[in-house]
Batch of 4 targets.
Target 1
Amino acid sequence: MQRRKEWMLNSLGILFVLIFLFPVYWMIITAFKSQSEIFQSTPTFWPKDFQFTSFIDIFKDNVGQYFLNSFMIAGLATILVLVLAVPSAYGLARFKVKGKNPMILLFLVTQMLPATVILTPLFIVFNNLSLLNTYWGPVLTCATLGVPFSVLILRTFFLGIPKELEEAASIDGCGRFRTFIRVIVPISYPSIVVCAAISFFFSWGDLIFSMTFNRNQDLWPLTAGIYNAIGRYGIEWNDLMAFATVSVLPVIVIFVILQKQLVKGLVSGSIK
Amino acid sequence: MKKGRWGEYLFIYPAVIFMLLLIGYPLIYNIILSFQDVDLNSLATGDKHFVWFDNYKALADQDGFGISVWNTIVYTLGSVVFQVVIGFLLALFFSMKFKLASFLRGVVMISWLIPLTITALLYKFMMGSGEGIFNQMLMGIGFIDDPIQWLSNPDIALWSVIIANIWVGIPFNMLLLSTGLSNLPEDVYESASLDGANWFQKLFKITIPLLRPVLLVVLMLGFIYTFKVFDLVFVMTGGGPINSTEVLSTIAYRLSFNEFQFSLGAAAANILFIILLFVSVIYLFMINKDEEA
Amino acid sequence: MKRISGLLLAIVSLVVVLSACSGGTSITDDEQSGGEGEATEGSKDVTIWFHYTGKQQEEFLSLIDEYNESQDQYEVEGEYVPFADVKKQLSVGVAGGTLPDMALMDVVDNAAFAEQGVLEDITSKVEEWGEIDNFYEGPVESATYDGKYYGLPVGSNALGLFYNEDLLKEAGIEEPPTTWDELKEDAKALTNDDTKGFAVSAVKSEEGAFQFYPFLRSAGADYDSLDSEGAVEAMTLLTDMIEEGSMGSDVVNATQDDLARQFAAGKLAMMVNGPWNIERLKEESPDMNFSISQIPKDEQFASVLGGENLTIIKGGNVDGAFDFLTWFLEPDRHETFTYETGVFPARKDVLENSDHWTEDPYLNGFVPIMDGAVPRGPSPQWPEISESIQIAIQESLTGTKSPEEALDKAAESVSETVDE
């Protein structure tokens, strides 16, 4: 009985994931097709004639540098987000400080302007601070997405941690900061990892900030490379999908590695 | 105690100050801009004069502005409801302990890892009315006889964009809700099982009430992120056909960077902002009630 | 109640805190206008923003190198800005006071930027130069605003009718259609389960307005007479073709490149498109036989001009920029650059004295078209006018409104825009 249920759940899960990820399959498979095959009246679910030209084309296009840039921007932004957001979320969850509500409101409010309208004012600010054409423009702006998000999410999770844990620690003579580092951070590790991952991907998908603040192409992320590949006069679907595939694969790998860690935390149920 | 207070502020304030510095300026800049009359000319000379509410009046008269507000609301509610429901069901499903659960949960995240520009192009590609794979498959299995005009029928286009957005947003909701689920205390369930509660009773009597804070924050964030959607709509339809998929952020972009009516663009963004502010205040009331209770 | 007042207080204090930050506004503005006014006379550096990609980019950059080596007075540097980002970059550049000395722009945007005071009036320099009469009228017109020059055309294109010779032959059509009636008839004959007879791009962007313009002009109408009989006839033609099924209803989302791809795949027998897609068609379907002719006419053959102008930014290194511009437009150089990159020269003397275009089996189809090609507008309000046209096209082609209703509404909003 138990085995049958296990088998059912597994098949159901696989079936769902296959349907759900069909667009991703279509993206990858299109990258290997020729232009004429893409536009055939009867679609082919497997390329008749496997082509690698699209991949060769895009590797001529400095993908390595783009990748490094994406990684730097997303990585730095994530670190910045964690350093700022984790203590802040904890403080807002635990301490009875004045102006807690306005601060929560502030974190909500600051996410509300569409990216397109903060471009001009931030461009002026970064220009005055000589931050144009550096990693810092996109890093700081991407962090403005991750910080409020992480504060709000982590605050909600910190609220669920029983206060007794910290009380025990402070009886042991730990200061607030040490309690935070020694007790709270380890215990909420999975939630922090989730926020880190999400902040990372917020920044990984950035296009508009990098393109606006950095005209220097050496600093452009992968998304800008894709955008560039579209060019003025059109999209070659196979090239585009090849670029997309190449830019997504490394992230998936990172994610799968992270996922193991993350799931360990999730499954063991760190907070009981 | 005084000293302790300082420590507490050191926890909280760096993030607050960071956000104030980086977003406070754009926020104010935008509000002021929306009350002025600014085009490229006055932007260069600095000769900006105040016209107060004229921009808002002009905006209300703009063809397609009313519909864009409506579209934004439909788009947001449509996306958020389906994302949260499907994401929640998936989180519940994967929280059952079967062998592939964690692996599959991770794999689902892929849809969220694809840069939005690519997703938009991919869906545009798949939703082509003639050779698009969606129609080909639906017609192949006999579900429809004539191709659906996914993106070219003004009555359908908005929902087509919503479908793409739901697909993007499901993993995000699922992941946050999974994390929330894993933090729920197990002993409550154990005692409920002893009392003979069935799955549905446990879901509605225990899981959802306990998950309420997480559900609220997920709903709120989903609402904000969806409300200011730009890339997806811009790339998939550019706001068309006619105005059927025009949303506030695409209008704001077009007014600012296509027509150089920066003040009108700022006014459109501010209306978006005010609606979101209103929703946030409701959220604040709700969590305050919860936390005081 | 206490909570509400607390919240209100919070919002007020938030606004106060934020507006304290906004004290920076005026400071930055001062600095910026100071920066703008800074004299750059005698400066050596000339920065150019350009959106050329691929082959055009290579050629352009190598010409810049050649120019820099040829003299010591100026040092030109090209910076790539993607086409879709040009307007945004110029806008934030104005706000931040970080503009280049020159910018390449689409012909249709030139007047708007001139009106907005971003561009340098180069009329006296152009007159002194004395070469302007060697240029085609249409492209030059696109670079003028209020009777003054705000740039010079550096490459032109236009729209023509691309037709698949094999498909026409199969359907028993010997010559491509030349009139609207023939177009309707032939498109119907060419349509079958697999192939659509004809397509224009009616997407909601500048491309849609661009593609509609030849039909509008052919019927004797223009953007300021959208409610005229001719305009209605033009719109009715396209709407009818959708109703008859000889044009696909998804043209309202199809860009010109989408059309080119469908054409290359043999799913489209005829389309309206430009010379920049010739190379791609040859590459993607080397076996296909296609040709280019005039877009079928109502009253007269008409086409629409596309292309780029190089403009000089106000307050930049004007002398250096103009020096490079005239060097770049010298006949031989202009000939090589335009021919190599598959576009048409903006100079009459270049086209007339060269066989490149007349002997090319594809480009020669465009030679007569270029003669009758007119710029859109030109109007500094073109973006708004264009949007009204785009919406009218989409309303009519999706059957939401009749051609008359759609165009009446567009005519009204255009006249409001122009009167402003």
Note: The longest strand of chain C covers residues 303-312.
Target 2
Amino acid sequence: MLKKALVMSAGLVAMLAASPAVQAATQIQWWHAMGGENGAKLEEIAKGFNQSQSDYEIVPVFKGTYDEAMNGAIAAFRANEQPAIIQIYEVGTGTMMAAKGAVYPVYQLMKDQGEPWDQSKFLPAVVGYYSDTDGNVLSLPFNSSTPILYYNKDVFEKAGLDPETPPKTWADMEKFSQQIVDSGAATCGFTTAWISWIHTENLNALHNMAYSTEANGFGGLGAEFVFNNPLTVRHWGNLKKWQDSGLFKFGGPAGGDNAPPLFYSQECAMFMNSSAGRAAVINNAKDFKVGFGPLPYYDDVIQEPLNSIIGGATLWTLQGRPAEEYAGVAKFFTYLQKPEVQADWHQFSGYLPITEAAYELGKSQGYYEANPGSDIAIKQLTRIEPTENSKGIRFGNYVQVRGLIDDEFAALLGGQKTAQEALDDLVKRGNEQLRDFQSANE
Amino acid sequence: MQGKRTVFPNKVLPYLLLLPQLAVTIVFFLWPAAQAFWSSFQREDAFGFKTTFVWFANYTKLFADPVYLNSFRTTVIFSLAVSLLSLGIALLLAVAATRMLRSSRIYSTLIVWPYAVAPAIAGILWWFLFNPSIGIIAYVLRRFGIDWNHLVDPNDAMILVVIAATWKQISYNFLFFMAGLQSIPHSLEEAAAIDGAGPTKRFWTIIFPLLSPTTFYLMVINVVYAMFDTFGVIHATTEGGPARATEILVYKVYFDGFVGLNLGSSAAQSVILMAIVIGLTVVQFRWVERRVQY
């Protein structure tokens, strides 16, 4: 017994002695919302940084979903127990930007700490989404993705379609789906995640339509939604029509939890989701070959579609931590921008490379040739200089508006409203949310 | 009346003994309630930088909001459906189980089992069974030509949450009904049987009235359960959807406050809920406890 205790305490002493650096290092809390495989990868990145130097230790803490992480951080801020770094999804960007006293803008942080900072290194479509009206980036882009089309090559072949040609336009989409269903190759043409992000926000961006006044909300808190335009009405109406005729199957609100299984089980031949879903699709598509394509568009509305807009999250630095922590945060942010770190994260997770250098590195490694389809997202995002309508969107209370989009879309599918009614109501209710936010923050 | 009465001379001790419980009540109930009451008159940004006193704006806005009024309607439908169904089924099972001579105990144990299941787990269980893509019940229903899809159809979604919430509550009601039935003297029923009353008649004229204290007590408990304790079931299955069709008042408080960060409105909603709970409690103590014959 005594012997055992002695051995154990000796082991403990040895362990403590072996890690003197850990004790001396300043700990920096990093709250994040990455579960599963991406979460493990994120911890690996933090570990990589911790081993690269001995002054600071990044401590990643998993806080649940994006909603939970953001609300947890806000509650912690109110109690003065906030982490130094918090990962916030794109929908929360408007709320964070309005909270001027709570956030430490990344460009300011890097300047104050004397770390290199060059915004032109980032992909324009990514950096545009997260900069203020003066063009300064307020939070460090970390994981950005954009929606793409996944399709089942085996089903395409069975239906007599060319497995190497994904549908380019929505007219193709309808034709292909009809052929797939008629031939019995699959019971449904396509399904989708994110009605809000893909079939409302991105739809308008691709077709160069304004989502709201005030430059999609980038111009100020007074923006009014205007996306109840003929294009969105037509597209939502089509989705309802295709749902009724069986060409389309709705995968549920928000991220559409039921959509991936429909695609994996080969019930639906095509599937629209974030490019960050790539790893999961490849893991789950064991019995069939997967093809990748850009999002379809209406060719009678626009000849050449614009760039798609991004989703995902950025890292915000919060105010109110001891000064030495900020020095560590700045060093960590520099580490995160390294092409090797970026390229590794991008290639593992399917998120976009945030910097041009990481993209170039991937090219020189031959990654995109070895993994066909992995660069569809980047190409779609960078195929054109973003316009005011395709730069992104920025609104306060947008978490609620996302909920409203799902509500009204469900009312459309349930047959309670027409597409025009649903979108008119949506814009009206959405604007009430914007006014609420404006009056609370002005 | 009493011959002897014990008198405790110490005036401070009783309060000292009560202190721990009072402290818990104040810290965990009264203080947060007062804070909610105060925030319900304010408008505040998420981080708490700007706070404006807005009088009753949060309340007037709520009652002008069709979504909130609809949530009221949803709550009434949901709680009535859950209460009536779980009471009805539990009573049926309890009557059937008391008739069993030997196996009564085994049945009781089996029926009580679901009560040990956490609400979120119960929700997920039914969600799996009814899942339109992978659920076995949805699959069977499709065979019968019913296209079950609680992601799109508000009625399907309501049925799903009612089933999940009811299933969990039947056990609780069953226990109380069992106890209630056992306390009714057999002699009453036997006398009625000798007078020629059939089983149905005996149930409705003797057993059911004698059970009424239990039933009324359970009615209040069930309504409270359906209104306040079913959060987990709804969060795990429909998250209030589709199109807010299963968003009961408690869920809306959570969604607006913790997801939407609209603290003023969320606080106003919880104050309204508090008023409802107070109302229900008054009904239980003033009205039900007096009128019902024991």
Note: Strands of chain A lie at 26-32, 56-62, 85-89, 140-145, 147-152, 188-192, 248-250, 268-274, 290-293, 311-317.
Target 3
Amino acid sequence: MEFKITKKANLWTIAIMVIGLLFTGIGVACEMGHDHGHHLGQRVLGNMLINSFFFFAIGLGALFFLALQYATETGWYASIKRVIEALTGYLPYGVMLLALTLLIITLMDGAHIYIWMDSAYTDPASHHYDQIIDGKSMYLNKVFFWIRTIVYLGTYLLFWRGFKKRSQLEDEVGGTDIHFTNYRKGATFLVFFAVFSSTSAWDWIMSIDVHWFSTLFGWYIFAGMWCSTMIVLVSLTLYLKKQGYLPNVNESHIHDIGKWTFATSFLWSYLWFSQFMLIWYANIPEETTYHLMRIENFKFLYFGMFIINFAFPMVLLMSRDAKRHAGILTFVGLVVLFGHWVDVYLMIMAGSMGPNAFIGFMEIGMMLLALGFFVRMILINLTKAPLTVKNHPFLDESIHHDI
Amino acid sequence: MSEKVIYAMYDDDDVLKDGAKKLVAKGIKVADVFSPFPIHGIDPIIGVQNTRLGIMAFLYGITGTTIATLGMRYFMIGDWPMNIGGKPNFTYLDNILAFIPVTFEFTVLCAAHGMAITYLLKNKTLPGMPASNPDPRTTDDKFVMELRMSENSGFTAEEIQDLLRSTGVIEIDQKEVK
């Protein structure tokens, strides 16, 4: 069945983007008047980084999830395969926006976000000279940063194109050749992703707090990304189901994605807590700085975000009935999705602007702008391929999925 | 008081499932099915209710959380205040991070053991308990459906046996059980 964007959805996405644009304008005007516009560039670019990364990560999480299904030869997901693929379809736009943001930041010598890009910190003659940053400059320098960024993004796009091409080809030719190609490519992608998801998190996010380091930071980012993806996937599936599409999707499929949402929010909480507790226990000044900054200046947001992202899904999604209830799933999902946005906000803004950061018109506006764009692109992607796959070897298993 | 019970043996789970569907559609109640492995989708056909083991798991888990919290509060704060990494040790809340892993582990321990023991008790399969399945072959490669005459008072034993024979059964046995 072909998907058509309803007039209501069309209007809403545009309205969200217009409101976002309006808020961003107000935010920029306010910021220009504040402190002689001293923090304007940093704040705008920081917000661009938050939103381009957050939504790019959802697309990437969907690509990872798809590869995981291929590599494990899963059957149940065949009915929602096109929904996952529509989410991965945001990837090229996400890559473009992220690359653009990183490019502007690089051209502005780090824009006080990646301070290691500023040569003042690595030049021994400068009075800003920072020995720790200089010591890391073998890895953290503009050229190597861009080589890595291009390799990450290029690899993701390459696999994305292959998955997409083969998925549409499978509808036409059938057979199991494509299935086994997907199996191999999916497993290969996971190998690359295992390394890149960690190192890209260090490069794009952890290097903002340049003195600080954490070995499990990559998994922490990855868990947040995976959880956000599952939330968007379950909401989108429920939306399509409500519109009368996806006749093969039954309660068991919804239950399964609900379980993924539940499980990944635990994974994220587990990693957040592991990072927090080890640093708290050891109490070494060079490690505690990250949490100190966030607790001293953003206590409410920092712990509030943790409680929402952990306790909300734990209490509300624990029972079997809740995971089959569209209303509860959507409500919990959207609240937790915002929680994860706040998580990314704190990673980037508390690291770059520090005590000067706060959620104002600009933050909300740019989030809405990116959200509207993201949802619109997903809906457009859904129209580009039939919503039900044909010839998937496990389609029959998926139709009769029952747990 | 003894009662008539019919045991119908099948050698394929799908044949048994189709047979059960046929009998249930006629209004016959299937008391139980014995099989060497869980048969997917049999529960709604013969009207087995959803398990409530999950609720018990939650209660056992909560018990574990409570015992762990109270215990550590007593050991580490009340009875003999422990200095953890040089941190203030006057309240439980100050050191809660150090206690969370233990609380988590004890919750899991209680939930898992509680569930396993409850399951074995409820099924009467604790080690050493006498077997209650009608035929030892159901632990190997045969499937047995149990029909109790007391639950099917609208039918005679012959009617049910005739119906069973049309469902691909390989062996029918009628017993008087207590």
Note: Chain A touches chain B at residues 273, 276-277, 280-283, 318-320, 402 (CB under 8 Å).
Target 4
Amino acid sequence: MRTILFILRKEFLQIFRHRVMLPLIFIMPIIQLLILAHAADYEVRNINLYLINRDGSQAAHRLIGKFEASPHFNIVGNAFNSDEAYRAIQNGQADLFIEIPVDFQRNLLRDGYAQLQSSVDAINGVKAGLASAYTNAIITDFNEEFRKEWISAVNVSDSPKAHLATNGQPPQSTNTHTLLSQPSPNEADKRSWEITASPYHHITISPSPITIRSANWFNPELNYQTFMVPGILVLLVTLVGTFLSGMNIVKEKEIGTIEQINVTPIRKYQFIIGKLLPFWIIALIELAFGLLVGKLVFDIPFVGSLWLIFGFSALYLLVVLGIGLLVSTVTETQQQAMFISWFFLIIFILMSGLFTPIESMPAWAQAITRFNPVAYFVEVMRMVLLKGSGILDIRIHLIVMSAYAIAVNSLAVLNYRKTT
Amino acid sequence: MEYAISANGLTKKFGAFTAVNAITFNVKKGEIFGFLGANGAGKTTAMRMLNGLSRPTAGEAQVAGYDVYRETERIKQHIGYMSQKFSLYEDLTPKENIHFYGGIYGGSLSFLKQKSKELITELGMEAYANTLVKNIPLGWKQKLSFSIAIMHQPAIVFLDEPTGGVDPITRRQFWEMIYKVANEGMTVFVTTHYMDEAEYCDRVSIMVDGRIEALDSPGNLKKQFKAETMNDVFLKLTRP
């Protein structure tokens, strides 16, 4: 115990002596949090829309008006035929075009349904999916209004019992979309464009017996920052922890001081604990700091217990720092340690469920995420902070993290050799 | 009598390369034992096997009565080591280094406080007491390093080229420090490239390509090789 205290004293002296390090450790992550929380936003605005209006009826204008009023769309131009609109997509002026066919209104009134075509540039899959979804929402809305006003006025009581359908399936699903990949010969840079030619939206007019109103639990306003900030905090604490601990022992190897340590009767576990604790304390303070910024700047809710968050973080950090130390024991230079740490961190971060839901990953990838400590922490942060989950709800996470912490740190102690 | 160090056929191989080839020697207690050899002759490797940093490939050795295979941690309690690379923390002050190493060897806080004051006065380092080690001249660093290596009163101290790159006056002071601890009964195992320093040793071994080619007191070696100085002895042995 005394030995550990002497190591701690020395480590803290060294950390505080490097005047550049402390601000780096604390200020850089906060800057990242402030920037990322605004940037990592999935909401897509300013989708550039081209229109081909072949109808010119009141219904068509009404539909166009709805697109104009939407914050998601900018109508950037009108085309007379689909070739022209297609070119607009090819040269990047438009993200999608919508074609309103001849007799749109007449068909709607006479037959009870009409067709629309939308084509979306699917190079950016996420954006394309959202553009389709927003388009659908607007058409649904239009349909609802049209039915109420026009049909009740005409009073078609015997119209077929049906509902709105945009071809019956969500627009993202591939079986309703034809993906065309077409090189563009006109373009000097020969970029190839993928255009999803979404099939026709059938607008069916009928009294709708079912309306869907959704209520979003735990994040009622679907605020992205509420969702992202706790996750980003996890990343920042993880990055700082892994790098600080990963570089540390290796640095002593590079300078040569490790020889002097290895020739003392110091015990291996004492050395590892002495190396782990300082960064554990720093990372916990950093997390507290980050949560404070999250609360003050982004007003993220603290529904659950903060003690539980810190309890889990304490455990989690043992894992992360242990991984760093393990890397430190198997490498000889800081450069090697850096590369290995990055290798794992990139996988951990991209597969953490922060940016893409784990549920939508293939089965083998989901299996990998079970070994990803970051995924557990992101989930726990969201569960506890946003949903108010208690200790029983996260018991599995706690058990897995404990096992992980014991395994990683035992490995680090075993792998650290005083005699080679 | 019991030896401080005894090695018998001690060997270290790195793959196909034999760095230390079956060396056999004994070091008496309280002796200043000079360990000479050209660069790459295997001195540092041999020393690292003796102080428990490197596991021998073959042979046997006892240091302070403990086996170099099974009792390395025991050995470490009874030896001091000053490595070739400067091994104090450059971003700490002399006082902080003394505190840290002293603490690891189990010194009490009051002992450390007193000891660091004493050492600094003894070395005449008052002016540098609160300067970071990296800003202190090399000669001072080496003397400090030595003082720290013997602070816990080990039975044996290993010095790996302690005076490399140090000016003649400081070298002289350094050897005075070595004599002082040897007189107090500490065994000193020292490697060096300076042949005048070899003359200061009680006994000297000369390593060539991983083997000990000569081992005796400087006087006897000079007789044996019919040489005027240790420098000539060394040249006769190491020149092909």
Note: The first strand of chain B starts at residue 3 and ends at 14.
